[in-house]
# Entry
Amino acid sequence: MRIAAADIGTNSCRLLIAEVIEGRLVSILKKITSTRLGEGLLESGWLHPKAIKRTVDCLLNFRDIMHGYQVSAYRVVATSAVREAVNREDFLAVAEEETGLSIEVIGGEEEASLAWEGVVRSLNFPELPLVADLGAGSTEFIYAGQSPVIKSVKVGAVKATEGDWSREQIRAALEEVLALAPRFRKNPLVLTGGTPTTLVAIKKGLAEYDPDLVHGQKLTYQEVEDLYQMLEGMPLNLRRRLPGLQPERADIVVKGVLIVLVIMDGLGKDEIIVSESDLLEGIIWRLAGASPGV
# Structure
């Protein structure tokens, strides 16, 4: 049975079509399109008409792809940008009417739970991990072991870029989560999202993105710091030509990497594990009815 999952994010829309075969998730197609739906949201609180049009056009394309692949079930979710927008209902009405798709706005806790699902089903760990799903508009933290923790923080790469947030401002926004550092001293820290996967792609110099070369890779604090210094000192036009970095992400990557550094430093972690598998895979598992849940 072919299943589709789509995520309407602050910076991009993503689509995954997959099957679950004998307890394994088999990816058939994965597509990402930069729509920057959350552009200007921090200042105005509204989703802008041009950003809405870009996103609806993308969803029309996703709908056609799903029809072409004859998916049996699908779920489309909207996260941080739509969650926070004053005109979220207007966006949903337009998007659903024009595409015929059913769109769900999910809360931060469900977003975190789905990301956890995608991570723990795709990687093996000696200890249950603390997972941080770093997005463009928010970052979700989840630990689903004994005394679970699920937190959604309004810190993301687009938001930090538009607000020109400093390291200190990012740390202050993450203060509640970073205070948990002693509890998670022995747990691996796994990061998902466009920023951490991009860091691996830049490190490896991937001219063409290959998820198999990114998933499960480790980055040390020093490697992330070195990449941050390189990217911060590089003019935007050169960043856009850097192997491993999507041109559409070039303007937000510096603040995204700064968020990674603050998380690592605040939680006392010398390294992170990067997961290509995240919320989209979590949706597939749950639609397939093969999930233990969180």
Q: What stands out?
A: The longest helix spans residues 49-68.
